[in-house]
Amino acid sequence: MNILAFDTSTSACSVALYIEDSPAGGQTFSTHEIIPKQHTLAILPMIQSLLDSAGTTVEALDAIAFGCGPGSFTGIRIAASLAQGLAFAGSLPVIPISSLAATAQAATMQHGWQHILVAVDARMSQVYWGAFQVQDGMVSPVFPEEIADPASVQVPPAGAWCGVGDGWCVYNDQLISAVGNTPQQIDSEGVPSAEAILILAKERYRRKDWVGAAEALPVYLR
Predict the structure, then answer these.
(1) What's phi and psi for 177, nearest 5 deg?
(2) Could you tell me where the DSSP H helices lie in 63-181?
(3) 24 confidence band (pLDDT: 50, 70, 90)
(4) Any bridge partners for residue 6, and if so which?
């Protein structure tokens, strides 16, 4: 399987490419930059650079994966539009991946956390909120993702939770009060990564859990 993944739902512009039949065996190429409001200019050159590094082309891909949101309205529209365009051009299936799940997956890849509370500032005094636990190296949601006032987010089951996302910086006291205790660790600068999306997308691809290009839509929650 050869999968291209990208995410532009936050200040990060992130691209990753998995090539299964590379000379070194399965190989991942990736690039990740914090470049607020520059995604439109940067994303295509970043994709082309990875394709060139891997010595491959869009025509050799088996699927497109993208961070479908929630997140920046403009950012997730950029990613969805690009996923649709590449998929239509190459007749490729698309694997939409929750940007909150990708944030949690990136956190467990970086920190080794097993129980993750994702809080992303949704503006208008609200957060995008999700709880994830790790099984076999991949995150899965504990309950459906939501947009909520920080003081009334859904409370996760008791456990050793860690927090990730800028919502923990903006609404730290309210979230702690709502959850009932302070997370063991907090990474308020954590964002989704395309490498995290690849981890989740590869399993979805094996299950043939994908959509057509026309169904590759943003998820706003609001």
Answers:
(1) -65, -40
(2) 73-90, 99-111, 167-170, 172-179
(3) low
(4) 15, 66
